[in-house]
Amino acid sequence: MGEFKSGFVSVLGRPNVGKSSLINALIGEKAGIVSRRPQTTRRRSRAILTGDDFQAVFLDTPGVHKIKNKLDEFMLDEIEKSMSGIDLILLVCDVSEKFGPGDEFIYSRIESRDIPAVLILNKIDLLHEKELAERIENYEKNADMPIITCSARRGTGKENIMDFLRENLPEGPQYYPDGMYVDKIERELVEEFIREQIFELTWDEIPYGTAVRVEEFEEKEDIIYIRANIFVEQKSHKGMIIGEEGSMLRKIGKRARQEIEKMMQDKVYLDLWVKEKKDWRKKEKWMKNLGYEL
Ligand SMILES: Nc1nc2c(ncn2[C@@H]2O[C@H](COP(=O)(O)OP(=O)(O)OP(=O)(O)O)[C@@H](O)[C@H]2O)c(=O)[nH]1
Hints:
One of its GO terms (molecular function) is ribosomal small subunit binding. By secondary structure, the chain is α/β, with parallel strands linked by helices. It is about 35% helix and about 25% strand.
């Protein structure tokens, strides 16, 4: 029996090459990373693949070169930062297209780092054998990495990717329990966006005593409904955040909603409530409930 292997795997690639599909194929539909909605939304989440002797934690990173808004910038930043904590990189390309500038851009970012990486040529179901052989040659010329071919749609090539993970992940603990497939952090980002607006729009002394907690997060047919509580320490703070006839809260809500919509690429209904929890910072249980690990 070998040691247990585990680590963080960054899945990089241009938009639409099939990163989410690939993760889903590896983990099974349980992960549900690819949105059921027609426009693929940018779901930021970790997906977890647990085998008998290894665990891979996938960071489903976005198409790297598409810096459109603040969130994308945040992600690019996050990719750059998180590279240091990454154990393996899967660079996913769409084999039905030639190695292009977008692939090159991401490849150059990976190449300069000392992290084991593999080139995943996805969508082989779209090519005939001969075309495929030529295309693989094209990729080999451009990228100095081991290559694995697969079709996330058909599920072919999965075993080879699993073997690669098993062989190349470092020894490490099982981070997540069996049966856990996703670790979503959207909620945290929503909370962060709301906190940010409170910080910008109210007086300095309020934000430090403020916590935001998403209580409900529901994807409805045509809108995402989010209900969040803003907890304040003092009654006077409650009044300040709500403002005259609710004007401040509306302003906070509107701005935060716009940020959230950018992230979700979808319409959002943001339902904000302000609640007083006296001296919550001193109370451990509340701290935990509010999402602060002590
Ligand atoms: N034919 C074929 N299509 C695939 C395959 N894998 C993914 N697709 C399709 O390619 C499209 C993009 O797939 P996603 O998994 O959303 O791609 P992504 O790289 O996560 O895209 P972004 O979220 O935009 O970065 C979808 O329409 C998939 O159904 C494959 O192996 N073969």
